[in-house]
């Protein structure tokens, strides 16, 4: 499976370094900082100086590992050029207007927008809640370096407000909101931790769901290795004869 990588920072490096294990071939690389794409090309892929050159490459999928701003800027053009889009910066998709624009483009050009599980687990079960009345809460704990804040409770509210305030820290909140169709309640704590911890608590008429994930952060303390690897796992699943969801 041939893939183009949009974003050649820490997450991009994890994707490039592990792609072969998942049977994914990274053939093209693009980053606004061309030097980052050149650096990753030492592992694999062709660095592209312009987005136009990148998006016309010979591949079927683009993994976005850049930012919510990159999804807004390039998402529609990726779909228009006949590529499927895998979004890691799901904070962008909390914007309902943008989400609808991307969905229309995907339908018009016969392409798909994929949202990997990112830094969380249990989305298969949580996605059922979209069709039922339910309460969903996310509690996130990260080292204060991730937020540039002091220790303690630094946010309490709902997913839409959380991702606007911390667009690079709380893609988990937007991913869970997309999966469940709920504006998830969110609490964020800055604590002296070496791991990023996410806990999801959901209640519905058929029971309760509790998910706890403890991730080792990447070199960028705002994001985790699992987030990057989930995109590769998603692509691997697409070509398997038996898909475990």
Strand order of the largest sheet: 3-2-1-4-5-6
Order of helices and strands: EHEHEHEHEHEHEEHHEEEH
Helix content: 25-40%
- The fold-level CATH name of the largest domain is Rossmann fold
Q: What class, by secondary structure content?
A: alpha/beta
Number of strands: 11
Proportion of residues in β-strands? 25-35%
Uncertain runs with pLDDT below 50, 5 residues or more? none
CATH architecture annotation of the largest domain: 3-Layer(aba) Sandwich
User: So how many helices?
Assistant: 9
Which class of the largest domain in CATH terms?
Alpha Beta
- Cα radius of gyration in angstroms: 18 Å
Tell me about the largest β-sheet: 6 strands, parallel
Corresponding CATH superfamily of the largest domain: NAD(P)-binding Rossmann-like Domain
How much is the average pLDDT? Answer: 94
State the distance separating the first and last CA atoms. Answer: 20 Å
What count of structural domains?
Answer: 2
Question: What overall form do the CA principal axes indicate?
Answer: globular
């Amino acid at each position: 499976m041939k893939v183009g990588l949009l974003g050649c920072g820490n997450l991009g490096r994890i994707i490039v370094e592990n792609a072969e294990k998942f049977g994914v071939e990274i053939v093209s690389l693009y980053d606004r900082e061309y030097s980052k794409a050149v650096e990753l090309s030492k592992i694999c892929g062709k660095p592209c100086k312009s987005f136009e050159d990148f998006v016309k490459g010979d591949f079927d999928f683009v993994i976005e590992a850049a930012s919510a701003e990159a999804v807004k800027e390039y998402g529609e053009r990726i779909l228009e050029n006949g590529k499927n889009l895998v979004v890691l910066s799901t904070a962008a998709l909390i914007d309902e207007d943008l989400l609808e624009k991307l969905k229309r483009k995907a339908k018009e050009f016969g392409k798909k927008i994929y949202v990997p599980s990112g830094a969380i687990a249990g989305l298969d079960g949580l996605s059922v809640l979209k069709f039922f009345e339910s309460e969903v809460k996310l509690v996130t704990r990260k080292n204060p370096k991730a937020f540039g804040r002091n220790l303690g409770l630094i946010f309490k509210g709902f997913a839409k407000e959380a991702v606007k305030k911390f667009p690079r820290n709380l893609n988990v909140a937007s991913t869970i909101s997309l999966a469940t169709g709920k504006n998830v309640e969110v609490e964020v704590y800055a604590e002296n931790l070496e791991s990023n911890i996410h806990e999801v608590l959901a209640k519905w008429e058929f029971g309760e769901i509790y998910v706890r994930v403890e991730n080792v952060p990447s070199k960028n303390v705002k994001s985790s290795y699992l987030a990057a690897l989930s995109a590769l796992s998603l692509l691997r699943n697409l070509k398997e004869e038996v898909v475990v969801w």
